[in-house]
Amino acid sequence: MHSQEIPVAPKAAGSVQRNRSSDEFKGSPLGKLTVASEKPWVIVAETVLVPAFALLLGYLVNRPDPLWINADFPWAWFAPMMIALRYGPIAGLFSAGVLLLGWTGFNRQDFSQFPQQYFLGGLIMVMIVGEVSSVWRTHLRRARTARHYQDQRMEQLVRQHYLLRLSHDQLEQQLIGQPVSMRDALHQLRDLKGTTSDAQTLLNLLSQFCQINVASIVPFHNGNLSDQSIAQIGGARSINLDDALVQQALATRSLCHISRSLKDGQNTSYVVAAPMLDLSDEMYGMLIVEEMPFFALQEETLQTINLLLGDYTDSIAANNLAQPLLQAHPECPPQFAFELQRMEHVLKSSQLPSIVLALQLSPKAIASDMPQFIMRMERMLDQSWLFEGSEKSVLAILMPLGSSASSEGFLNRLSARLEQRGLHSIEEAGIVPHTLSIQKNGAMSVLDEIVRIAHA
């Protein structure tokens, strides 16, 4: 069997590529104009100085009429319009007030010739432009939130893909007497909650799959690595946080190893330093490897370390976020509760709705394997939970970033599939649909309603 090169950090590579494209756009002159600052003093400074510069320019170019009131086009209004485009109608109105102050300064001896039409038309234009800007900024914020969620799910799918590929390779490379399989290891990782004993279990799995001889796991608290390890293997020594490899891993927030990562002239006591990051890029700790066989220091081994650490930290993040729901409903799958809770956070932050389609299944539907038939129709982002009640069961399908149209489209596709099986309606198949909106109910209320439907 020949091995293929696998990138050590696909997430980091994708992020670098996206940031590079964004930086190229922001580096252009027009791109810089679209980048609005979030600092209050910068917004105030632009709101005042931009129209002031327009007044100064008009005074130098057209001294008799610096505001271009009698010109064919009111060029001075470009300044408030630009501010309204960048920061909205309120900032645009304040910028227009600077023009008004400028007019009073130029005409302080005679206010009888106040240009009412000039300022009225300009204010209306600034209000319209600012309102359009506010609407589009809201759309962009929601789009960025949706894209961030989809990027996280894509990253999760990439990790799962690599884990699947590596698990097949491990079946060919490991000895017949391997104590656990990759699937068993992943199952153990997803049940861990981040305690000290869990960290030791993770380190033992890494030792088995990556041939690590001496290593430690150190926690990350309050923006700093601890110098005391919470898990060790092979008699690891005390941790040197000033080591060049450890510092480089902290700076880059990615796996670093001795063969490629260090610059010329730098020395290190370690072989591998790998930050433990979840999908939200939050750091939980760092794996520091002191000894491992030279032939094991290859791309596939480093990728396995990255993916096992990522799966461990993702499990901790999911358990922490979904803990209130799991305490109230321990029968709910952790992944379903995690996605449900995360969609409620997305709703509160960006007003992006999600929906849960609860399908009440009769004993007839259960006997005909209807749950498995329906779950094969799920979209890639959907999460499902089959809850078995005393007499009836409920198949809950979470549709992230979906609305009532998403559930209607799913039910229409289900009806079409059932007709192919000789069933003329959903009710004939023993299915009663219920649409539960997270926007109206909240995550906890959705789970309560699913349980109520099952026992109805």
UniProtKB/TrEMBL annotation:
Listed transmembrane segments: 41-62, 83-106, 118-136
InterPro entries according to UniProt: GAF-like_dom_sf (IPR029016), PelD_GGDEF (IPR031583), PelD_GGDEF_sf (IPR038367)
Keyword check for RNA-binding: no
Keyword flag Transmembrane: yes
Residue ranges of domain PelD GGDEF in the record: 330-449
Superkingdom per UniProt: Bacteria
Gene3D superfamilies found in the cross-reference section: 3.30.450.40, 3.30.70.2880
UniProt xrefs under Pfam families: PelD_GGDEF (PF16963)
UniProt KW keywords: Membrane, Transmembrane, Transmembrane helix
Region (Disordered): 1-26
Protein name per UniProt: PelD GGDEF domain-containing protein
Organism this protein belongs to: Comamonas suwonensis
